[in-house]
Amino acid sequence: MNGLKQSVYNIHMKELHKPVLLSEVLEVLQPRRGESYIDLTAGYAGHAREILDVTRNYKDAALVDRDEHAIEVLEERFRNKPVRIVKMDFYNAVLQEIECGNTFDMVLMDFGVSSPQLDEGARGFSFAQDGPLDMRMDQEQDLDAGRIVNKWSEQEICSILEKYGEERPGMARAMAREIVHGRPWHSTKQLGDALKKVGRGGKIHPATRAFQAIRIAVNDELGQIERVLPLVMRILKPGGRVTIITFHSLEDRLVKRWMKEEAEKGEESQIEVITKKPITAGNEELFINPRARSAKLRAAQKR
Fold first, then answer.
1. In 3-state terms, what secondary structure has residue 39?
2. Are the CB atoms for 265 and 294 separated by under 8 Å?
3. 279: phi then psi, degrees, rounded to nearest 5
4. What is the DSSP annotation of 168-190?
């Protein structure tokens, strides 16, 4: 195992990434022996490992992620199992499965950022860990956070702060102005400290929404979700279940609207919504994993 593989595998083995709503996912999906499964955001296999332990059907399983570190862990975790591991974003992965005519009994999508991504300063996702302005989930793509904060116009930055960070217009303008006038930016801490001076105090760090907005823009997170949802039913078998975990209102709104619109198509509807209300983490999980506090799970079944 090379140095990178060993390092990433050690992260996995220490269980630094705790899969959110694991028991709830298992309860909703109700995996059974022999069923097929695709995890479109497999990450460090937290959910996949438990589901495949039940199905034992590795040859009809696909684990997808666009993060090369996650792929390294998945390959190591399942090196003796015939699991198909795919390095790709979830939208293009679904297109590929449709083209190949593949369908599954269970589909899982977890739109959260993994703990290793947040905790490793070199990934540049968080101002809590100093690092380069990166934020790319796919390290092979060109667009990163540095390009946005150092090259985009003030108007473009203000727009994403409002749209993706849900900042108030006045605050978005002030932060965008600070970003443009303070160029060049070199590190997450440098940017976070500057935005803290612009923002107001409160329960959360003033730069939190701005970093969320930049990360969403870097990874086209909402665009990916909007494009993939209309395709999900095409990779589900009749009776198949899809479970989706979101972490902020923008994501949850898209999933809720899609399920509602699909369910209201009358005789043409392909889905039955399993979760009338989103499932959230209980007190026990929140005590162990505070990052689960914003997670919401919605699920549906194909007719």
1. strand
2. no
3. -90, 135
4. -HHHHHHHHHHHHHT----BHHH
Pairing of strands 236-246, 84-87: unpaired
Amino acid identity, residue 184?
A: P
The domain segmentation of the chain, as residue ranges, is 3-116+223-302, 122-219
User: Residues 199-230: pLDDT tens digits?
Assistant: 876 788 999 999 999 999 999 999 999 999 99
Concatenated DSSP letters for 115-140?
A: HHHHH-GGG---TTS--BS---SSTT
**pLDDT tens figures, 157-194:** 999 999 999 999 999 999 999 999 999 999 999 999 99
Q: CATH: 3.60.10.10, 1.20.120.1760, 3.30.9.10, 3.40.50.150. Which one for 3-116+223-302? A: 3.40.50.150
Cα distances (Å, whole numbers) of residue 119 to 45, 114, 192, 224, 241: 18, 9, 15, 24, 32
Give the global pTM: 0.91
CA dist 259 and 238 (Å) reads 17
How many other C-beta atoms are found inside a 10 Å radius of the C-beta of residue 131? 17
Fold of 122-219: DNA polymerase; domain 1 (1.10.150)
In the structure encoding, which two tokens stand for residue 44, read together? Answer: 């460090």
